[in-house]
Amino acid sequence: MIHVIDASNAPRYEAQLQEHFFIRHRIYVGERKWQALERPDGREIDQFDNEDAIYLLALEGSRVVGGTRLVPTLRPHLMSEVFPYLANVRGLQRGPDIVEWTRIFAIPERRGASHTVLHSVLAGMLEYCLQNEITAITVVMETWWMPRFLELGWDVVPLGLPAMIDGMSCVGAMIRVTEAAWRNTLAFKGLTAPVLHQAASTVPQGQRGILHG
Ligand code: COA
Known about the structure:
Aminopeptidase, disordered C terminus, alpha+beta, binds coenzyme A
């Protein structure tokens, strides 16, 4: 299940949040070699890991096996503060109904075609957005994601031209949140809805039929 963690319930998930910062360091600094993110305490934490951040963590029991982060676009976020030029064609997309998505990962033992962690996190992200009337997700991503999102039936709009960043081809994009995208993502790996832990208690009245239908 995917657990939604924000400022309101972070104390309850303190151990998992800390574990996820250590995992992020092992993956992004150790594996991906994004040396700018290196920290002496072995936790990968940046300026957007603040009280506005929303974490979606894939837990097996209490163990973190995957996750991602959402940040409100009305607050400072990666594209607005660090990579605004990646939105040089359509401009930064900001609003109460738009979140920025960063830091998706699956631990190495849960990757590949035989695993469902990646798609559970992706479906959980769309489910969270549908529940919270978020209509779009912006992202600074490596361009290799693009065909994978299109394969999932996602509606992805580039916001600017691709650019090389530290040897990686990257692009700013906006993903429209639709029920179809959520359903396709679930179906891609035969996942059953809801994927969010305790989703039933947080689903707005109008969405209940969708999420449990
Ligand atoms: N560069 C290019 N392609 C990559 C890639 C990379 N760094 N990482 C994954 N891919 C490709 C895989 O080769 C695979 O391609 P295929 O469909 O042609 O086989 C595809 O993306 C997805 O692979 P899949 O097995 O479905 O997903 P996964 O279980 O490996 O999970 C990640 C994908 C990205 C979550 C996982 O590989 C991971 O945690 N990587 C480290 C963290 C990271 O780089 N996150 C993205 C930036 S925030």
